[in-house]
């Protein structure tokens, strides 16, 4: 959602801004470039949206980001792209295309020719690759939707299935544009300009000009070289990411396609010319879909791994025509999400098609360009939502505080220089120089060093990162959401056994389903036919569950050829039959072998019609006929509760619920089967048009298939490590709730003694308000004797409660399914924080619901990680603070992190590296702050005697000390294990500020002591080239002593004893604070090995001083080091207590919302809800804002 405001150009404001730009030397122009809202308000005046020339947009989230866009005008013959323009088209001499009716009078024709192109001017603007057109009726800018918006299924068949004329196609193309997901790779020049205009580089440019003016040529040159290297590195990284994304999107994005025109003519065009409403012909050998299209006829086998991450081929069938069903329940609006079984999505690969002789496989284009599913994925990568992290927010305050310090020095320098009658030219340069000193030029390189090293270490352990800034945020993760199948458990399912039903009673469980006695049973017939398997290049392919089920019975699937389908008109006779090995072999002669051959070829089942699996209905159904039988059979499989509700109650065992619950509690995935003998009057052709609901009723319950989904070996260990580190774990899955709860208990996510509360939310119905029913799940540990069929190993779980917070958070857990979650989000907004605070199992969750859950957790201030295998997890992976994909498919291109090994062991590794990188960032920030202040103190003290540091001294400090220290400070690898303590999240905290301030005071004191003490020495005098403080004066010493701006008269007063003393002390202070701030355990490895190498650099002497004074300086440095180390230790151990007692702090409310909420719930007698109670919803009050809000996708 974004707010939108209209503006029009104001000439007198434009003149004022132009004058301001000239007077400010271009600085005002830079300021307006950085702040788009100021630019618009400074040059335009506010007006209505209807008349505006520029729109100003602001996001309504917590970031409040501003954008501006220019409103353009497009001549058009109609107001809507989907309106029907069937009049005759005439071309007029001026080039305008004019439409008018044949019955129009001659004067009307002239009127249309003259005024129509002008009167139908359409206003629009483009934002984030999407066009927004002015809607006169709604008085707002709206996105132009394709046929996916408010189009009924019946009208798709009856109105849109005829195709478009070329004129209609050209008209729609004006609105929808070229069908292309264009990821433009910016030119090097554009990227360079954008990078160079960064505020920090502008400040560096100003600094370099100032230093050159002050004759600091070497230092200015060094900074220029550093900046150029930094810019080149940044340009290379950014351009490389653009090229990678462009190559991924551009692959097969432009293809030649055949379209069917309204006059039945087949035309071959480029896919870039497709518009919604075109009828695209799908070739039999497959293609890459260039748009989103709904299948009108035929069947396609599609690989959707680009969007879902799931490489299993999916069968797409044509959209049913509601008008063909005489007993249809009613027409419905087409939606790509609700009708995804009939929709071919852009970027997916059509492997092959099934079609009928004389009939083409046709698909109606519904969305093009960035409006497609692939386009929306690419847009989310191109225009990501900013990551909110306290460290980056505090960084601005850090820089602002340095600017304040610089301002104080600026004023002091001016006053001191005026009192000492320094020339005005020198006053200006020196006062501005003090500002450049406080903002260190090496800051960008210093900040990125730690992240770059962390990125390299992650790459070594098989974790790839496309968003380096997220590494720091991963150091703060305190909650991780896990997908179940393929993430916590093994990817595939194994058939554990079957449990058939006879005479409404469960038989004993059977391990094998391919026994001789069951060969011709209806149970096996259902397993053989009720699936969506297909053959691709001779290999069976399809849903893993279907594949395991079919392989377990050992049957053979044969698909009909095109010639065979011609015999049955619209029928696809896929045939299944048992393999020869399944038949009894205890026969005697060759005649018996012939009988066996005849038997195996005569017992076949043909699949006449398939109703595919629907996640909404939670079932699938097929109509089949055994060869030689007159009547057909209906077979159904799906979720046990759903199947049982569609069966005759007398065929369902009375202990059905208890048996099912026992299996699901053990973590098994249970599928129920049902069968029904159809009436003899149902012919093959009637079956093709019969309504699904007419078949899926009055079924006979046949039994259960029990599938086993084993935990991955490393899952319990990894989750235990996370619990020890006080990191919450949450399961988000599309599986059954009881199965998910069982897996959560098995892997240690829910401890044995913890309660599980199931929240069952029901939407409003029949005038009743929405309500939540609370049920307590069985909290007893497994009892394997209760079911002789189940025998699995217990997984030892260590009980860990290292903090009060962790203890309170694990006493009880909420579990809910996707339907309940949707109802709670809509009708129980006030309960959402309470439920996500203790919610551990979220079952049957749709992809968008996973994203909503991540957002709900973030709203209570959790730092959320998401770990999934890429299948339906893309949205959540992108939205989480740290998304880790266990799949290397294209769907994971939007995930910040991708693990080469599909194991959740990457999660603690990533968090450890994140913590190390975060601590490194804090160390570098603190060090750079002290570096600026130490140099600031030195220069301020030297200004008091009208002196300064020399060019070579600045160069030595920045290159030989600071850069080396910063880069080696960042080399520390992560600590070996996760600990319960988390690093701080922000720079502005009591202990951190106390640490920095105490070190500043120590450095100030010791520099001041050195500065004043040197003046008390008996040999001290104002230094001249003839000074002989060392009693040794020869050419070697003089030449080695020369530094800075080397002139005989030393007009800048660089060479003096005070300068040498302060330079020597401050050089060691840089090293001291680097060692003091380089924290090791418990987040990083020790740093002493990295720091030892620095001391040999600090041997630079400006002027010769007596050895006695050198020893005294060394003593000052040693005492300084001891005091700094002791002070830092004291701050670490006693800082929080000291600050609390100093400022009289009481036990304050926690900053994080989830901790504050946890404290409130501890004293709430009504929470958690009691068993078997109900909570009813209240009607929320709504308020309308004063500004217009539009939805920007």
Automatic annotation (TrEMBL):
<keyword id="KW-1278">Translocase</keyword>
<dbReference type="GO" id="GO:0031902">
    <property type="term" value="C:late endosome membrane"/>
</dbReference>
<dbReference type="GO" id="GO:0015662">
    <property type="term" value="F:P-type ion transporter activity"/>
</dbReference>
<dbReference type="GO" id="GO:0031901">
    <property type="term" value="C:early endosome membrane"/>
</dbReference>
<keyword id="KW-0547">Nucleotide-binding</keyword>
<dbReference type="InterPro" id="IPR023299">
    <property type="entry name" value="ATPase_P-typ_cyto_dom_N"/>
</dbReference>
<keyword id="KW-0597">Phosphoprotein</keyword>
<feature type="domain" description="P-type ATPase A">
    <location>
        <begin position="257"/>
        <end position="381"/>
    </location>
</feature>
<keyword id="KW-0067">ATP-binding</keyword>
<dbReference type="GO" id="GO:0015594">
    <property type="term" value="F:ABC-type putrescine transporter activity"/>
</dbReference>
<comment type="function">
    <text>ATP-driven pump involved in endocytosis-dependent polyamine transport. Uses ATP as an energy source to transfer polyamine precursor putrescine from the endosomal compartment to the cytosol.</text>
</comment>
<dbReference type="InterPro" id="IPR036412">
    <property type="entry name" value="HAD-like_sf"/>
</dbReference>
<dbReference type="InterPro" id="IPR004014">
    <property type="entry name" value="ATPase_P-typ_cation-transptr_N"/>
</dbReference>
<dbReference type="Pfam" id="PF00122">
    <property type="entry name" value="E1-E2_ATPase"/>
</dbReference>
<dbReference type="GO" id="GO:0046872">
    <property type="term" value="F:metal ion binding"/>
</dbReference>
<feature type="transmembrane region" description="Helical">
    <location>
        <begin position="1060"/>
        <end position="1077"/>
    </location>
</feature>
<feature type="transmembrane region" description="Helical">
    <location>
        <begin position="218"/>
        <end position="238"/>
    </location>
</feature>
<dbReference type="GO" id="GO:0006874">
    <property type="term" value="P:intracellular calcium ion homeostasis"/>
</dbReference>
<dbReference type="InterPro" id="IPR047821">
    <property type="entry name" value="P5B-type_ATPase"/>
</dbReference>
<feature type="transmembrane region" description="Helical">
    <location>
        <begin position="434"/>
        <end position="454"/>
    </location>
</feature>
<dbReference type="InterPro" id="IPR008250">
    <property type="entry name" value="ATPase_P-typ_transduc_dom_A_sf"/>
</dbReference>
<feature type="transmembrane region" description="Helical">
    <location>
        <begin position="954"/>
        <end position="975"/>
    </location>
</feature>
<dbReference type="InterPro" id="IPR018303">
    <property type="entry name" value="ATPase_P-typ_P_site"/>
</dbReference>
<feature type="domain" description="Cation-transporting P-type ATPase N-terminal">
    <location>
        <begin position="153"/>
        <end position="211"/>
    </location>
</feature>
<dbReference type="GO" id="GO:0005524">
    <property type="term" value="F:ATP binding"/>
</dbReference>
<keyword id="KW-0472">Membrane</keyword>
<keyword id="KW-1133">Transmembrane helix</keyword>
<keyword id="KW-0460">Magnesium</keyword>
<dbReference type="InterPro" id="IPR006544">
    <property type="entry name" value="P-type_TPase_V"/>
</dbReference>
<dbReference type="Pfam" id="PF12409">
    <property type="entry name" value="P5-ATPase"/>
</dbReference>
<comment type="similarity">
    <text>Belongs to the cation transport ATPase (P-type) (TC 3.A.3) family. Type V subfamily.</text>
</comment>
<dbReference type="InterPro" id="IPR023214">
    <property type="entry name" value="HAD_sf"/>
</dbReference>
<protein>
    <recommendedName>
        <fullName>Polyamine-transporting ATPase 13A3</fullName>
        <ecNumber>7.6.2.16</ecNumber>
    </recommendedName>
</protein>
<keyword id="KW-0967">Endosome</keyword>
<dbReference type="GO" id="GO:0019829">
    <property type="term" value="F:ATPase-coupled monoatomic cation transmembrane transporter activity"/>
</dbReference>
<feature type="transmembrane region" description="Helical">
    <location>
        <begin position="12"/>
        <end position="35"/>
    </location>
</feature>
<dbReference type="Pfam" id="PF13246">
    <property type="entry name" value="Cation_ATPase"/>
</dbReference>
<feature type="transmembrane region" description="Helical">
    <location>
        <begin position="196"/>
        <end position="212"/>
    </location>
</feature>
<keyword id="KW-0479">Metal-binding</keyword>
<feature type="domain" description="P5B-type ATPase N-terminal">
    <location>
        <begin position="3"/>
        <end position="135"/>
    </location>
</feature>
<dbReference type="GO" id="GO:0055038">
    <property type="term" value="C:recycling endosome membrane"/>
</dbReference>
<dbReference type="Pfam" id="PF00690">
    <property type="entry name" value="Cation_ATPase_N"/>
</dbReference>
